[in-house]
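Memo to structure team: turn this sequence into structure tokens by end of day. - J.P.
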Amino acid sequence: LLTVLRILFVLSKTMAEAHSAVAFGFTVSHDGVSLNYDKELLKIVYQSISRSYKRRVARFKNNLRAGIYPASPSSYVFIVAVMVAVSLANIDLSFGLIDWAQKRFFGISFTSLLFCSVVYSSLCWLAIVQIARLTIKLMFMYRGWMYERLRNTRMATKFYLLIVKLILKHEPMLKSFQGALPRLPLPALRDTLRRHLDTLKPLLNDESRQRMERLSNEFENTIGPKLQRYLTLKSWLSGNYVSDWWEEYVYLRGRSALMINSNFYGLDSLGHAGTTIQAARAANITYASLLFRRLIERQELKPILIGVVPLCSSQYERTFNTCRIPGVEIDTLKHWNDARHIAVYCHGAWFKVLIHDGRRLLKPCELQIIFSEILNNCYDVTDDERHLGALTAIDRTSWAEIRQKYFSVGVNRSSLHAIESSAFTLCFDEEEYFYDSNDTSKLDHWAHMNLHGKGYDRWFDKSFNLIVSKNGKVGINAEHSWADAPIMSHYFEYATVFDILKLGYTAEGNCIGDVDITPVPARRLKWDFTPELSREIADSVQKAEALINDVEMALIVFREFGKGFIKKCQISPDGFIQMILQLTYFRDQRKFCLTYEASMTRLYREGRTETVRPVTFESCAFVRAMCDDTCSVSVVLFDYLIISNFNSILEINMLFDEIIFFSKIEQRRDLLYKACEKHQKAYLDAMCGKGVDRHLFCLYIVSRYLQLDSPFLKEVLSEPWRLSTSQTPQQQTDLVDTRKYPDYVSAGGGFGPVADDGYGISYIIGGENIISFHISSKRYCETTSSTRFRETLLQSLRDVRTINYYCDFAKK
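Reply from structure team:
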């Protein structure tokens, strides 16, 4: 009853705000109580309650199916039926338990026999399910197969992989393996400290290395074991000993602005978008996004596999209907179970757009009507309304205080709630974005606009903003605390590919389909701007502009080679790119630096990320060999050699005889192989819970709880990551084969620089012949330049390609 009354109140309030007649109410007079109601309203209430009930039932059924995987309800019915039939045939498979229960509790009768048989068979079925899930969990704890992929796979591992494949044939749901995934293992303290020192040795001189060894040994022999014991207890009692603290202390307690510093972005495919009509593209992408939400809610989305082992799917839960709410000291993530609307920003105004009519989702052609009306109308917009989103672009404490002071009551609270509780926000940009292979500035500008926009035309608190340009190009800006980039990459790949290959457009570029209903027009959100609030908004715009002016983006769409060439070299693609980045940074800064590469730990329950440290003795040796001036000319000569035409092999041999230092190129390739192999081992260790940084981070959190001071942990946690890197995964869906449709490959996405004097680099190996890079840095830093780094990176790619070309040519 309370739920019904709440719905009636909200609907009455909403309709009153729309200046409609009062649809539900009552009056008290001398004649008694008079009840007024509207049949249309009651119909809406009924549809809402019915939909809510159906969603709850569906959620319960899906959770039940996922919780009993690999069994199924049909297997339960089968076992119960067999057991009852056998019992009725006077065959006892219960070892006397059914007969004992009858005599002890019910007495001998047909009904008691039937009841006891059902109970016994149910318990047997539950036991089988638990044993099966425990067996799966034990199997998923085995990680040897990952390392054996680098070498010949043992017969035992092949048998293991075969069994896992057979299990996966039971069509798992999105969360079928959540309860079967193992917990993230806690490494031994000594092992973590040893690995940490090994990663620092290539970067430190003798004096600094000895000092760090002293601090590490002191920590290991004093408070380290105590902190480890507390952390061990946490690892036993929690699903993941890292993830909750990582979300809270790294993200939600962070007080800096989300824009540039935390949020990341993604770009559309570089090919044709299918249409240049802004409203049509927005409608199709919105509809595809809502279908993806439905797949998550119904758990029909297939879990991502690494080899044959599933990844944790817990992060998908908050993709939609989620907003980060600012707090004075700590933010909170609020997730709504359902959202029937999206928030739209267009021409400086915010709108609430219903995407469900009570029975079904609005079709793309119906959404296009709403979006077209918004785009085609002219609005009288004040600067305060236009710049409202800048409040989400400033530091979190200031935004929290402003929100509490000016958005806690009245129309501001109602309108703010409409944005925060929406499925997502849709932003219509008034510019056209392009990719031009002859003009890199256009792609750079596109990246800038997706990373930060104008500073006020995004709602940076939302789980993600969907951005649609004037010519139909789309992009996303995503908040980072609720999930990592692979989740958004999966969603965005699905939406963009489904848009073109499944939904499509008419010859004129409009959405396909017939309009069955007249969609409810968008409702413009109203605001009450006081002079004090206006000053806060204006100040926020200035702060946002200062952040924007300080960031420089430079992008590369490299088409000279890609994954195909790297695989021919028999090198890990990720290791290959990381060594390229190490070479580029050294050429740019003439030194090595502590480098961050994000790896994932989603092979474990509630896993998120771990840090890989690519700088090793092997990587440094490769970089120094590549920068050896005595051999640089050989690379240039070999470039000339492979593109020249020679009349005979004799001429080539004569040229080789004259270049006596060509053998150094083979040495470079050998060093590259060793560096990549070492990096791949470190990457796999990080995926398997043998990393360094998350363990040390959690030890530091424990020390803060216990109020214990650790100079070692303080220094480790304060180390700057001047080169922060991340690979964007691609082809997480089976909707498209990028080898057949290379134009559908996304350009990936990027993020802002982590250190003031460093670089933020994201890359995506998009196909057999394409690699994209997103480079960010601070303009006001005199020692860094994204544009300069881009040119150096291009040269590094070509230089490393050349040494592999030479070695292949020499073999032939």
